[in-house]
Amino acid sequence: MDEVPDMGEELQKYFDNLIARIDRLKAVTMTDRDGVILIQASTSGTPPKVLEPMLSTTFAAVSDQVSRLGLKRNKSLVSFFELYQVVQFNHSPLITTLVADADSNTGILLSLGDELKEIAQLVATVIHER
Question: Which family does this protein fall into (predicted)?
Answer without folding.
Answer: Belongs to the LAMTOR3 family.
